[in-house]
Amino acid sequence: MAAASAPSSSLYEILGISASADCHEIKAAYRRLARTCHPDVVAMNRKEYSATEFMKIHAAYSTLSDPDKRANYDKGLCFSFNNKRCVSGFSTYKTRRNWESDQCW
């Protein structure tokens, strides 16, 4: 749970999963964390902290469980943080295109 309290943690770190996790792993991580962090199941003195943590967990789940939102998040993660794990098919440098070499002869 320590990763969820770090302000700069990614949504993957909040759920405790890898960036290559599939939808079943995302859902399982969300359910596991919800059982321990939901405000209805924690002690009375931890309700406020738990509510904040659960909102982070729910936001991470809602983004990563939707394929379109996840793709946009991953794209933003790659370009804004220059993440070394990210492998993008795009180049930030303009390349000179050659008509002859672009053809499939």
Automatic annotation (TrEMBL):
Residue span, J domain: 10-77
Entry superkingdom: Eukaryota
Pfam family, one: DnaJ
SUPFAM superfamilies on file: Chaperone J-domain
PANTHER family: DNAJ DOMAIN (PROKARYOTIC HEAT SHOCK PROTEIN)-RELATED, J DOMAIN-CONTAINING PROTEIN
Official protein name in the record: J domain-containing protein
Organism: Acer yangbiense
